[in-house]
Amino acid sequence: VDTWARGPAAPPRQPRTPVLPVEGERNVLITSALPYVNNVPHLGNIIGCVLSADTFARYCRLRGWNTLFVCGTDEYGTATETRALEEGLSPRQLCDRYHALHADIYSWFHISFDHFGRTTTPQQTRIAQDIFQRLLARGFLVQDTLEQLRCESCGRYLADRFVEGTCPFCGYAEARGDQCDKCGKLINAVELKNPQCKVCRGTPVVTPTQHLFLDLPKLEGRLEAWLERSWATGDWTANARHITRTWLRDGLKPRCITRDLTWGTPVPLDGFRDKVFYVWFDAPIGYLSITANYTDQWERWWKNPQQ
């Protein structure tokens, strides 16, 4: 109570544009989880991540710390394509609509973003492709074949959400290509019985297709050493430690980073130019690209551990 009565320890910082790290000061970068763009945000979304980050950003500013708070809509992936089909829009039109809606809602709640951006920008393409090229040059990518369902009528491979059929576990007739809503089990789309394309209702066929994988086993030793140092000095929760140890105990596996879709960041490699990056690989890079849309000096925040 006494501390509160005395007021802030330092006078409120006058906002700079853009906010950049300052030598000799405490510099704080806050990234609220990127909300997915294909729906209207509700109170749970706002309380779960946006409001808590906003509270911390306001606290940092009251302390006089040099604070940048960024967020934006996550816009690539199959969920966007699916919703766009349902609403009779192109994915770009759908994203434009819901990005504006999200921005209006957070503004109404007075969420104090320094910048609220989006992942469908030229900066996102440039930075994601640059990271990909660096991984490729350093030997951290491998090629492998996946079996996927392909609809010959539509002339496309079907992402999980574009196919439904009978669950192989419980027999539910309207299971999705990634999960059964009745029994809750995860499904590989090629395991579905009586699969159907959700667009044309045709019967897809299992077809091999080439994809690129992040070679996580090659990083396993370095990751374990980093984790031991981080666990010794950081504040990991017991749950986070347990999950990470489980992954390492079972051995890391190569993880696919490409998909046979059109809505996404293009893969800049011959033989894969008809594919896009898998959204799990692409979306986290949105934090960097959103900062890059805010300032062309974004690397001073993201490649500046000394400050």
UniProtKB/TrEMBL annotation:
Annotated ranges, domain Methionyl/Leucyl tRNA synthetase: 28-305
GO biological process terms held by the UniProt record: methionyl-tRNA aminoacylation
InterPro entries the UniProt entry points to: aa-tRNA-synth_I_CS, Met-tRNA_ligase_1, Met-tRNA_synth, Methionyl/Leucyl_tRNA_Synth, MetRS_core, MetRS_Zn, Rossmann-like_a/b/a_fold
Superkingdom of origin organism: Eukaryota
Enzyme class: ligase
Catalysis: reaction(s): tRNA(Met) + L-methionine + ATP = L-methionyl-tRNA(Met) + AMP + diphosphate
E.C. number(s) listed in UniProt: 6.1.1.10
Keyword Protein biosynthesis: yes
GO molecular function: ATP binding; methionine-tRNA ligase activity
Compartment annotation: Cytoplasm
Entry GO terms, CC: aminoacyl-tRNA synthetase multienzyme complex; cytosol
UniProtKB keywords: Aminoacyl-tRNA synthetase, ATP-binding, Cytoplasm, Ligase, Nucleotide-binding, Protein biosynthesis
Family of the protein in this entry: Belongs to the class-I aminoacyl-tRNA synthetase family.
Protein name: Methionine--tRNA ligase, cytoplasmic
Organism in which the protein naturally occurs: Peucedramus taeniatus
